[in-house]
Amino acid sequence: MLIIKDLTVSYGTAPVLHKINLEVPEGKIVTLLGANGAGKSTTLKTISGLLKPLSGQITFYNKRIDSLSPDQIVKLGVSHVPEGRQIFPGLTVEENLKMGAYVNYKPREVAKKIDMIYEVFPRLKERKKQLAGTMSGGEQQMLSIGRGLMSEPKLLMLDEPSLGLAPIIIEDIFKKIKEINELGTTILLIEQNANLAFAVSDYAYLLAVGKIVMEGETRVIRENKMLLAAYLGGSN
Average pLDDT of the chain? Predict the structure, then answer.
């Protein structure tokens, strides 16, 4: 589905990603692990067109997307839920969801999509007229994911969905991530907490200072405690 080959990205003259290779098969959850500053968010921003690579290529269903604009990439079926949620605090829950459907805004279809989001996240239906900025962190994260789903993506990219949330809320969020995948959406997940990522993912890549240092099926990667400790620290 998504194939990255020899991708190099820099901020100014400082390289952040160094010829990384990564694949996301259709129907799977793939996790990109790494410490702060490893280049995880840069990878997602480059896939979604917010950053342009120095070299290498990104293909989505055999189509090159590394030179396309972000809106063109969304139209092809890639949705990016950024770190920090980045909802519109002065809009209601429902208005935020509608913003996620901007690339193909047809009122009847939008209404159906919103109903689908409410089935996945019943809490959002309860809060649909509430200003998003007044909701809890967990509810805002649900809203951010729901907004990402409004474009009906084939690939949903999630950047640190557990960030700043209480453990009981994190557990609920990750159950929903698994449910979204089971409903047919492929997921590329960035998550600093390896145990959380391992619980839901099929395949994992370990990124360190802009390079892929390890990859494999989740059950294999999680057994390499020494390598994970070396690159992620002992808290995972």
Answer: 92
